Amino acid sequence: MKKNLGLLLLLIAACIVTYCINDRFFAAVNIENLLRRTALFSLISIGAAFVITSGGIDLSIGSMVCLVGTLLPWLTTTNGWAWPTATVFLLAVAGLLGAFHGLLITKLKLQPFIVTLCGLLLYRGVTRGLTGDQTQGFGLEFEGLRSVALTKITLGGLSPIGIPSVVFIALSAALIASFALNRMRFGLYLRALGRNEVAARYSGINTDSIKVVAYVLCAVLAGVSGMLFILDVNSAQPSDFGNFYELYAIAAAVLGGCSLRGGEVSISGVIIGAALMQVLRNAIVLVDIPTQLEFAIIGGVILLGVGTEEIVRKATRRMTATS
């Protein structure tokens, strides 16, 4: 809770500093865009949190976003599939690929880094091959389907801005994830697995099944995000759609309280972490910082945040040990 409060204060400070430099930050259109992007990246960050809590890592998130997001318009507009059929099919594919990751890791004892790195390369390559590396989009079709991502809700005039519908989708996913992690045995077992897999196994936990489920959830959430991303932007180039999204997801999860050692997770922290990442990206644009420096600045902030957390943690342990 203390870490979440500190991260929230950092988010508020970033918003205030950006506004002081450029007052367009709090313009309605900018806030709506920030809310939408935060919601979309929160979904993949929640998926990453499941895997990281288990003590693993998933580097294929961005390519999964590309695979599902790009193939949705390819199946519906180019190949004439009905959108419900295409949606169910692609989410099933994402879930099966997530299970495939988990089985390779648990049964063949391959390292998560290697398995998901191969997925990163494989899924984007397959997508580029199937689509002929051509831009895919809905054009003027499927306006009803696209409204899932584009609709704005005004809350009966109580809000001065329209809240994007994807915000409610992300909040629903966050509530379900939080309930699963804090109120269900799955969450208890997942934390135990991340803290000490051997001890968890000897205590009777089916660690292999828990690990597979974590990768399935991560892949499915990446698939859902991919669909919402493509519905939002309407078109995508397979060569770069979803590039580096896995890094944003992992960074948001780690900033939000997930330990890369496993066993620790805070869904509320993950959401705040995702929001901070998007505010930083937005600030770079509004403050007229060269976009070439985007990754350098975000990387520096992440390093500073994680490094400060580790220093504070060690200092706290020393104080506890000496008292």
What does this entry look like structurally?
There is one protein chain. By secondary structure, the protein is mainly alpha-helical. It has one domain: Orthogonal Bundle (ABC transporter involved in vitamin B12 uptake, BtuC), CATH 1.10.3470. The protein is built from 13 helices and four strands. The protein has helices spanning 2-21, 28-53, 61-78, 83-107, 112-131, 143-150, 165-183, 185-195, 197-202, 207-233, 245-255, 267-286, 294-322, and strands at residues 136-137, 152-153, 163-164, 235-236. The strands form two sheets. It has a two-stranded antiparallel ribbon with strand order 1-4. The two termini are 23 Å apart.
- Strands, count: 4
Helicity range of the residues? Answer: over 70%
**Number of individual domains:** 1
For this structure, the quaternary state is single chain
Name the average pLDDT. 91
The outline comes out as: globular
Question: In angstroms, what separates the terminal alpha carbons?
Answer: 23 Å
Succession of helices and strands = HHHHHEHEEHHHHEHHH
